[in-house]
Design brief:
- The protein is an alpha/beta fold.
- It is built from 13 helices and ten strands.
- The protein has an eight-stranded parallel beta barrel, surrounded by seven helices. Strands 6-7 form a two-stranded antiparallel ribbon.
- Helix 8 packs parallel to helix 9.
- The chain is globular.
- The N and C termini lie far apart (52 Å).
Length: 321
């Protein structure tokens, strides 16, 4: 089932500067955010989720959203995304000419209430108003289905609930969707089966898979999604970020680890992995804590290291005999 029918090209979306930075204990300086986004813009990524137009009281770490969006150097080959929680956020996104906005609703009613203090019906009504507000603009609308695989309050999520929400999204004018394992509860078979259903029911729909590595299955789940026809994945530099309403959660799947894995099986991401690794290795000093990414620590699987002098001498003695 897995490792079959894999796409030859995979689009990678970077979410660290929103999903990652919003959860940090410290405020990342505005000029540093701009620098990081500008560097990421040159690495062959498909999208960069820059920031969120949320209330500064709710997420103080993203209180500089307008300044960041208005100051970055945009690469025309990159889609610059902002998360939008409400109509006011949508207006702010329009004012900064965001290429795309991302709306988020949990498939789980309980998680939606915990996360954004709304019922799913209330969220959908607000999304409909935002879609009306965005009419006539050049800004695309993506909507995420959080907790698509499992909710810490309700347990595993039936695929039918996800399919139903996708239909509701499309009915109100949303143009693309992200299937999100917000709480890191997904298993590879579950990911394959849901993604396979989505691709069969909505064959022309642009779909992103957003995975977390809470239980260490993130990269395996990514392969499962690719095998089912998904060609676009979200990831976070260093694996930073994560859902604050998922007990025990770590972060998103790690961008550099994901790219390293995909390239090891000859899938084309178009991403400059060596430079991405350089950026990941700078994160611990910036964030003042370690990162979960493994390749930044261990190095590329193709890297070799010099033998110690004692082993070189031993080889030389053995060759003489």
């Amino acid at each position: 089932m897995f490792m079959q029918n894999l796409p030859t090209k995979v689009r990678i979306n970077e979410v660290a500067t929103r999903d990652g930075f919003q959860s940090e204990a410290i405020f990342i300086p505005t000029d540093k955010k701009i620098e990081i986004i500008n560097r990421l813009s040159l690495l062959g990524l498909n999208k960069i989720e820059v920031t969120s137009f949320v209330s500064p009281k709710a997420i103080p770490n993203l209180r500089d959203a307008e300044e960041v969006m208005n100051s970055i150097t945009r690469n025309p080959n990159v889609t610059y995304v902002t998360l939008v929680p409400n109509e006011k956020g949508a207006e702010r996104a329009l004012a900064t000419n965001a290429d795309e906005i991302n709306l988020v609703m949990s498939v789980s009613e309980s998680h939606n209430l915990s996360n954004i203090r709304m019922t799913c019906d209330q969220s959908l009504a607000q999304f409909k108003r935002i879609c009306t507000l965005m009419e006539g603009s050049n800004t695309r609308i993506n909507a995420s289905l959080a907790t698509s695989f499992g909710c810490p309050f309700e347990g595993l999520i039936a695929p039918e609930r996800v399919i139903n929400v996708i239909k509701q999204y499309l009915d109100i004018g949303i143009q693309s969707i992200s299937i999100a394992d917000t709480t890191g509860m997904a298993s590879p078979r579950q990911v394959y089966e849901l993604c396979d259903q989505v691709r069969n029911i909505f064959p022309t729909l642009d779909v992103t898979l957003h995975l977390h590595n809470t239980r260490g299955m993130g990269l395996t789940n990514a392969l499962a999604g690719l095998s089912a026809g998904i060609t676009q994945l979200d990831a976070s530099l260093g694996g930073i970020g994560g859902c604050p309403f998922a007990p025990g959660a770590t972060g998103n799947i790690c961008t550099e680890d994901l790219v390293h894995m995909l390239e090891s099986i000859d899938l084309d991401t178009g991403v400059d992995l060596p430079t991405l690794l350089d950026m990941a290795r700078e994160l611990p000093e910036l964030l003042m804590h370690d990162i979960s990414g493994q390749v930044a620590k261990a190095g590329l699987r193709t890297e070799t290291r010099p033998l110690s002098q004692s082993v070189i001498d031993l080889k030389a003695r053995n060759e003489k005999h």
